[in-house]
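Protocol step 4 of 6: structure prediction from sequence.
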Amino acid sequence: MKMIRYIGLSLMTIACQDKESDSGQDTSDQEVEVDSGDDTGVEETTPIEAGSFDVHIPSNAGGETGIALRIFHPGESSLRYADRSPIVLAVPGGWKTGTFNQAGVDQDAARHGYIYVQMLLPGGQAVGIESGGEADRRGAMSQLAVIDAMRFLCGQTTAVDGKKLKDHLPWADDGNLGVVGLSNGGNLALFALASTQAPQPKISWFATWESPIGDQYQTVELNDDPRYRLGECGPLSCPLTGLSDYLGYDATQSAQLTSFGNTPIDLQGVLYYDTNQNGIKDSDESIISGTPNAAPPWQIHPSTEMRRYLQDHSVDIFQGPMPTWLASISDTDAFWANRDGSSQIAQASANRPDMLVMALQTQTDHVQTQMDYPHTRANLDLWDQAGHGFIRLNPDASYLAYASQLPEDTILEYQVGTLLNYPANTQGLVPNGGPGNPPSSTIVPAAIMELADRIEAQDFSADLHQTLY
């Protein structure tokens, strides 16, 4: 097939246009490169095959190097829509700086026809590539990096090499750009979405995958709480009444934190759940710590609720000085004010009232153990309290069926607007695989397809009886 290659002299000056004005690339100020040896008057080029490429985008968070993105794309013959592909930015989970999948073809992006973008946060490294700047444990610089990634994908800025995404992929639909917050990436994404910095990138949809929305979930301190009661948590906090009966402290023991970087963090003095109340740290009893700051000297931040509880019950719990690694109340408040995404949902909704929102939750969370799923319930409740227009728990059954190649009538679903109330609405969550159930790996692709398709079709109905594309 003959392909026309356009040499851009003047790119669109209005970024992230509404769908009506973004049906195709403006070529009014572009010229066609003509091969005089071809009697058709146009140059034949090889269609773009599925694959990936890396770019660095300029950002004050990334220093001279910039922020690294890896962009996985479908082949030109398998776009999701007739002449374009939606774009999704995946904000990495955990507390580290992110990682990249192996370069090459991403099977989900190739099969389903969307553009999937990963990023390294400031200071992050992958094989052969890195982001500039310094890691800040998901603080202000990480938030700025996400904002700048959204701006690039939206068409508002160029990469370090001066190119826009559409210079690489002319069919990239920057009017259908979504964000997926993977686990703790949901909190980081919420800060970016709540930012009021100009220019505001247009984000059409946002999904969170089992995100711990709330500092008590980010610290995972409720997982082994022996007195946790199902259904007791509110949107912003879980009560700790009676917890002092189950807290122990041993100043002679030490522990290491290994989940926050390449260097283990040593703690002298161990705070733990004394589940059997024998006054001794047994091998099967869990240590309570928190999240460290980005660089030594290390200070550990439990949730704001836990930190105040420890202060109020310090005599009974510590029976002496508090451990030196425990951050002060004021430092703990300041730390979580910049990392707990629950505080940002109202502003994120105000910034983008038409953005589609979906919370993804399987029956067995990848980290949290509470079977009433308070972190996801809080997520949905806060969007609902903000009066947000489109909220959904998990993808429509038609999209889960398509992604998993299973019959639709075997898959449970919630209609748009359904909240995760306990116990009424916890039985229909997506099972974690097993015979006849969608594999857990299909829930994110299903969400991406449904949300992007709804934007393309402008279909926001409560229930879809089949996939839109």
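Step 5 (inspection) to follow. The two ends are 25 Å apart (CA to CA).
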